[in-house]
Design brief:
The protein has 540 residues and is an all-alpha fold. 47% of the residues lie in helices and 2% in strands. A two-stranded antiparallel sheet has the order 1-3. Strands 2-4 form a two-stranded antiparallel ribbon.
Length: 540
């Protein structure tokens, strides 16, 4: 008999009706009081699972971008230095945590994604659906590590406790438990090779247990590298465990959420608003390397298209003042995202690119970093580095031919200086002098810089992950912002974290106040934007 917990009924099913979805993210019409144990079938459960996938990545049914814009576009994308803002009213590019935006990001996750994840996990556990339970556990790991990578301590183990106060877990506690959750899920996935679940609803792998196993191991590798500087013993053990169980090795393994006209890529919508452009760091790296991906990632500037003068791909400094942003012409003089991210009216597709979750290229660069440490990764750092480039450039969105890929891998090109003829005081030297070609005789740190720089390029436009890795490794070497309006984060530093949101002080005050006193915060500066996260521990 199908069972359903009181907690799940009370907390999660309302969330399903707010935005439950099929593989096309169509709304459910079922009302909360109509979902009972006798009529909740595997199809409806599958819709809940699809809902959890989309909402955890801030993708919403019907094409709404409110969650995505306030969570990623206005924070991580800018802090990763993929883009610079051109909108006069957007202060986050000057290290300002705009409270309404971060409040919205927090509330979206805990009001939209977390309840559905909890419901599916509890329901599949209570009704003895082990494979479905393994899938949602892996997805839970993906969802919660991303939230913790923004704030550090978060609500995790006590979510949905039904109390008026919900305590926080430290980031260390969250990460250590995420590894345990992966252990549980992987054990089940190994026992069900060739099996399937949520067929017709799983947005990434069509329900393939084998694909989910490979993804789970690859996700473990990502998290293992995240903790390398704070707990190298744990990092090595988890990385080697991931590799032993099998990680992504080809582009067919990569994890993408499908996009449709009911659930478009958010950039499909927000690129039409003209609020950001290519960053100066992107110009230095990609144009300097003469990277074949440049014309896919970015569009030629309007100015270049109109008169053929100046560089075709141009990046803008991060951190322009409101006064400077009030000037006109920034959008025309700097590169927008590439056509594949634009809407149909601007040459793009009906739904936009599939949404990146974790790619095989990223995994190869993680393996390269592990090999650089001398860990049992199954190959050398150079082998994985070059394969990462190959996989990135052979993805469907790029489709570079083998000769072009090999020429790039062997290239001695280095990043270029960035100049602004009208504002020479903004000019920048190259961000680095490392070439594309692997420095076999280089230092370990130079090789790490190469690996991390190419990973940053390959995972574009996943600003969420890119910001985390920029904080962890400080590569690619970031440019200073022109201005910082945050006294806790100077213009020449990378934004370390978001502080706790005001809504928590209004509604969960005792818990968030206690979180402020967690040692991993108090030992590093307290609840400040300038306080580094637990895993952000690379020696100076």
């Amino acid at each position: 008999m199908i069972k359903i917990s009181n907690i799940a009924m009370g907390l999660s099913l309302t969330a399903l009706t707010l935005g439950g979805c099929t593989e096309n993210f169509e709304e459910l019409n079922t009302q909360p009081n109509a979902i009972v144990a006798s009529n909740l079938d595997i199809g409806l459960l599958g819709q809940a699972f699809a809902n959890a996938q989309g909402r955890a990545m801030y993708l919403a049914p019907g094409g709404s971008t409110a969650g995505f814009q306030t969570a990623q576009s206005l924070f991580a994308d800018l802090y990763a230095q993929y883009f610079a803002t051109t909108q006069v009213n957007f202060d986050s590019d000057r290290h300002v945590q705009v409270g309404g935006w971060s409040n919205g990001a927090w509330n979206y996750f805990y009001g939209q994604a977390a309840p559905v994840i909890q419901f599916v996990e509890e329901f599949t556990q209570e009704n003895e659906l082990p494979l479905e339970n393994a899938f949602i556990k892996v997805w839970k790991v993906n969802a919660y590590h991303r939230i913790s990578d923004y704030w550090g301590p978060i609500i995790y183990s006590s979510f949905g406790n039904g109390e008026t106060s919900v305590p926080y877990d430290s980031q260390e506690e969250v990460y250590r438990d995420l590894f345990t959750v992966l252990d549980e899920a992987v054990a089940v996935l190994k026992q069900n090779t060739g099996g399937s679940a949520f067929v017709g609803h799983d947005q990434m792998f069509g329900g393939s247990a084998d694909k989910w196993l490979t993804y789970a191991n690859s996700l473990r590798l990502r998290l293992a590298m995240r903790v390398k500087y704070v707990d190298p013993v744990l990092s090595k053990a988890e990385a080697e465990k991931a590799v032993a169980d099998g990680v992504m090795d080809s582009n067919d393994d990569s994890a993408f959420i499908n996009t449709t006209v009911q659930s478009r890529n958010p950039y499909w919508i927000i690129t039409n608003w003209g609020e950001f452009r290519m960053s100066a760091l992107m110009e230095s790296v990609m144009v300097g390397y003469d990277d074949p991906r440049t014309g896919v990632y970015f569009s030629e500037t309007v100015d270049y298209q109109e008169d053929g003068e100046g560089p075709p791909y141009k990046g803008l400094r991060n951190g322009l003042s409101r006064e400077d942003l009030g000037e006109t012409g920034w959008n025309d003089a700097h590169s927008d995202m590439g056509v594949i991210f634009l809407n149909e009216g601007r040459g793009g597709s009906a739904a936009g690119e599939p949404w990146r979750v974790l790619s095989a290229a990223e995994v190869q660069f993680l393996l390269a970093e592990g090999a650089l440490e001398g860990w049992a990764m199954g190959g050398s750092a150079q082998e994985f580095y070059e394969k990462g480039i190959e996989l990135s450039m052979s993805e469907p969105r790029i489709g570079a031919d083998p000769a072009a890929i090999q020429a790039y891998i062997n290239s001695d090109n280095t990043p270029k200086p960035v100049t602004f003829p009208g504002r020479p005081e903004w000019n920048l030297a190259p961000n680095s002098n490392v070439p594309v070609a692997f420095l076999t005789g280089g230092t370990k740190e130079q090789q790490l810089e190469q690996i991390c720089t190419q990973k940053w390029v390959a995972i574009y436009p996943d600003g969420w992950e890119a910001w985390a890795e920029l904080r962890r490794t400080n590569y690619p070497t970031p440019y200073p912002r022109l201005n910082s309006d945050n006294e806790d984060v100077p213009a020449d530093e990378v934004m370390p974290r978001l502080i706790f949101v005001q809504g928590e002080y209004d509604n969960n005050n005792a818990a968030v106040t206690a979180a402020e006193e967690l040692p991993e915060l108090t030992s590093r500066g307290g609840n400040s934007n300038g306080t580094k996260l637990w895993w952000d521990a690379k020696p100076e």
